[in-house]
Amino acid sequence: MAIEIRNVEKTFGAFTALGGVSLDVRSGELLALLGPSGSGKTTLLRIIAGLDHADAGEVSFDGQDTRDRAARDRKVGFVFQHYALFRHMTVFDNVAFGLRVKKKAERPAEMDIRRRVDQLLTMVQLSHLATRYPSQLSGGQRQRVALARALAIEPKVLLLDEPFGALDAKVRKDLRKWLRHLHDDMHITSIFVTHDQEEALELADRVVVMNHGQIIQVGTPAEVYDHPADSFVFDFLGGVNRLNGVIEAGVARLDGKAVRVDGAVGADGPAVIYVRPHQVELGVAPAEGVPEGKWSARVSSLHAAGPVARLELDLAGRALEAQLSRDRLSDLALEVGSWCTVDFRHARVFPAKS
Amino acid sequence: MPAEPHSRRPAVGEGPMMRLALIGLAILFLAAFLALPLVAVFSQALAKGVGAFLKGLADPDALSAVRLTLTVAAIAVPLNLVFGVAASWAIAKFNFRGKSLLLALIDLPFSVSPVISGLVYVLLFGLHGSFGPWLRDHGVQIIFAVPGVVMATVFVTFPFVARELIPLMQEQGVEDEEAAIVLGASGWQTFRLVTLPNIRWGLLYGVLLCNARAMGEFGAVSVVSGHIRGKTNTMPLHVEILYNEYNFVAAFAVASLLALLALVTLAAKAALEWRFADQIAAAKR
């Protein structure tokens, strides 16, 4: 099912949660709403589900306005951040809930309910825990029960609010992969909210980056990562170095030397040069002077656990983070205190905020 | 050298002497102020033998008092069950104007002396009260009649259910209800299948406490009842009358029956707690 969101606004008292948001969700895609807390992403999700109401604007499902459709009639699967499992019901009864509360005319026979719930529990790999209570399950298991419960009503759209937020790192990674496979099998339009950029980039077909109740950028993970719309997106999508420089006559300069940048340069004046740590190119320092077009820096610390080495450098008094492979590090034979040359493979420049 | 015993003491714990003193003090206090009076009631009631005790209870006026007390409780407790659930539902799950006023009002019966509560009813519905003449013209008697006793009891026992439920419901939030609604449940289904099971233990405690107070209320009821023997006398009032007439055995016999009802209530609560300990633990999670 496709969802069209047009100029949706929502305020809570003096706080603007959504300031005129428009978005098209394509049928069958897995979409991430990514943003810091207070960016309006959860509010948008709740408005789609019918749990909150927009002050203005409209949300339509396959072209049909949803304004007059109550949450219970929307056929939406919603997975809550803290699962919201019914604690006095067994896993089985939790999953069966949505089927059992149907009006008599639509309610499947108890035997069919049983079959359907067994099927769902097999799918989330929890058949052996059907008679347990939620309090007897681990976080990851609870999350899967919540998912099975949401899927039981055969929703047209699946909405997940910070689905992995309350889980530890290892479980989170496994569950993420599992959810991706599940989505590939079922092709149900899914929207999940997260503040974790890694999660959004790894899991989603498309990422919607939000801030202060606005959508800043929509695109595939590669698009938003490689071509961030502005400094906020650049910043939010992972570690970044911010170096104060200037724009002079249409050229970005750092300590007087020109920096090759992607995209528009902008008007003359103070500017911030954004470089991701893995786009910092290090080289062996020559015996004398600094080569043309490069900078010189000193290694101030070095973390070399795992396949990637992380270095902190001192570039004329500024802290600069760099990432390179362990092999490259040993080729360069760098250690704390040694000097090297610095260049930037890709950089972006944005005007400094006054 | 074996480890010194005191080195194993938990950081927050007290020394053995201190612990003994604290426990001893608590038990002594309970014995002096709670257990002793209870024993006294029963021993006084049986002071002249079981025959006298039973005779005191078999008196028609005493039986009428027992009947009235049970009737009043049977009306007041269900009413306050419904009011209490409705009020705590409104307070815990919605934001609305006047919410803090409603919260304060719920506490009113606790903060106002029961005698004053009773007087308010007399001022409102008594013969010389605001609605008195109108009620008299329509042949309705509230004050010095059973309706007054019921109303005073409802007023005094109102907070018990609500006070028990509000913090519980506030803590549980609305996520479970939202989940039920998104899954297609109607408002009534959500309440019956999700909300009610979530609060059932708190509700039970509230009802038991409410019941104990409804049966035991003296002050407010005393003002509105008029102490008409065999008609508007509840058990606590009847005890007082008998006592004032120096009919000690009968007074204590009725009192012991009242105490017994309270003990049964407590025992029921303890038994339920014991029987459903795992469910209560799961609900608290």
From TrEMBL, chain A:
InterPro entries: AAA+_ATPase (IPR003593), ABC_SmlMolc_Importer (IPR050093), ABC_transporter-like_ATP-bd (IPR003439), ABC_transporter-like_CS (IPR017871), Mo/tungstate-bd_C_term_dom (IPR008995), P-loop_NTPase (IPR027417), Sulph_transpt1 (IPR005666), TOBE-like (IPR024765)
GO MF, one annotated term: ATP binding
Residue ranges annotated for the ABC transporter domain, each copy included: 3-237
Domain of life of the source: Bacteria
PROSITE patterns hit by this protein: ABC_TRANSPORTER_1 (PS00211), ABC_TRANSPORTER_2 (PS50893)
Keywords: ATP-binding, Cell membrane, Membrane, Nucleotide-binding, Sulfate transport, Translocase, Transport
Keyword Translocase: yes
Gene Ontology cellular component terms for the protein in this record: ATP-binding cassette (ABC) transporter complex
Protein name, entry field: Sulfate ABC transporter ATP-binding protein
Species per Swiss-Prot/TrEMBL record: Nitrospirillum viridazoti CBAmc
TrEMBL record, chain B:
Residues passing through the membrane, by range: 71-92, 104-127, 139-162, 248-268
Pfam families in the cross-refs: BPD_transp_1
Segments forming domain ABC transmembrane type-1: 66-267
Cross-referenced InterPro entries: CysW_permease, MetI-like, MetI-like_sf, Sulph_transpt2
Membrane topology (UniProt): Multi-pass membrane protein
Keyword list, A-Z: Cell inner membrane, Cell membrane, Membrane, Sulfate transport, Transmembrane, Transmembrane helix, Transport
CDD domains: TM_PBP2
Alphabetical list of PROSITE patterns matching this protein: ABC_TM1
Gene Ontology molecular function: any one: ABC-type sulfate transporter activity
Record's subunit section: The complex is composed of two ATP-binding proteins (CysA), two transmembrane proteins (CysT and CysW) and a solute-binding protein (CysP).
Function, as annotated: Part of the ABC transporter complex CysAWTP (TC 3.A.1.6.1) involved in sulfate/thiosulfate import. Probably responsible for the translocation of the substrate across the membrane.
Matching NCBIfam families: 3a0106s02, permease_CysW
Official protein name in the record: Sulfate transport system permease protein CysW
Lineage of origin: Bacteria, Pseudomonadati, Pseudomonadota, Alphaproteobacteria, Rhodospirillales
